[in-house]
Specification:
By secondary structure, this protein is mostly beta strands. Helix content is about 0%, strand content about 30%. It has no helices and seven strands.
């Protein structure tokens, strides 16, 4: 399971937001699949179009991430 990394700070720890501004920790795999970091969580109701880095101020789409 190869993870993509933030183009700014180079860490794989990312998150999504929903309409209530709640966060869901995620990883993005090399095939651009977004998976929750915890197995028992779902991504229902979360905006998959914009992801955020947990370590810096970067945000963008999955296609902007770097291959590690």
């Amino acid at each position: 399971m190869r993870k993509l990394i933030c183009p700014k700070c180079k860490i794989p720890n990312l998150f999504l937001k929903n309409a209530s501004n709640e966060r869901r920790l995620i990883y993005v795999l090399a095939d651009l699949t977004i998976v929750p970091s915890r197995e028992n969580e779902t991504l229902d109701g979360f905006n998959l179009d914009e992801i955020f880095c947990l370590g810096c101020s970067w945000s963008g789409s999955v296609r902007q991430l770097l291959k590690f």
